[in-house]
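ENTRY TYPE: paired fold submission
RECORD: A
CONTENT: sequence, then structure tokens
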Amino acid sequence: MTESMLNIILIVLLLLGFVTGLKRGFILQLIHIVSFAVSFIVAYMFSGDLASRLRLLIPFPDNIQQQSVASFVFDSGTIEDAFYRMIAFAILFFATHIVLRLAGSVLTALTELPILRQLNKWGGGALGFVEVYIIVFILLYIGAVIPVSEIQTPIQQSSIAINIVQNTPYLSSAIQDLWTQYGVM
């Protein structure tokens, strides 16, 4: 996959997020974003505990050279620690997100009020873009940790992917700290 191909895929995903948000509307999209934020916080707070348990269940591949993997993302820490934290983070994040989205879908009846319909639509588009951006951000970080050159090379060669991973306010440093400083919160 070339740099331009990954850049095109990322741009299309972000546009699809905007269009999806337009269709969902502001209120439903807000429910999705709030559940996203709460899921991130839950995963951030409890991934260390789960990671230590996952070490007992999932063996770390022996043949990985820790120095070469994801060096463009991580400055310190070991890939093994990041590997278990990433898996724990993903499990907690997606489980919490699904539960909260199901619970929040009850509030969507408010979106049919005539006065709110247009504002609801455009606000939803903006929030849809933000939601997909955060998903893409997390997937790119996960891809950077997976020790497979077919995944890492396109990410390292994509200017958009590198920019998302390294320059997203707050999230770039928070994820790097979370996944590289095992056991430290």
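RECORD: B
CONTENT: sequence, then structure tokens
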Amino acid sequence: MRTSKILLGFLAGAAVGAIIGILFAPDKGTETRRKISDQGNDLADNLKGKFTDLVDGVKEKFTAVKSEAENVAGKGYSAYNRAKAEFKS
């Protein structure tokens, strides 16, 4: 949750900074609108990349946890079978 707050703060700051910078630039209206559009597209691409990285990280963690859970479950099942065999003998 801490990382998401930092990312959100960074993106909001970048967006505000870009908009203020463009609005104070001495360009024609069409040029300013084009720059705003370009900045918005860049910001959206950056956000998509960060989101993709986040999703990939979550998938990796899930895979690792799943693998560890399967390993622990297998060991537990083996211990159960050994105890069961000892009990029968």
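NOTES ON RECORD B: The two ends are 53 Å apart (CA to CA). The helical segments are 2-23, 29-88.
STATUS: closed
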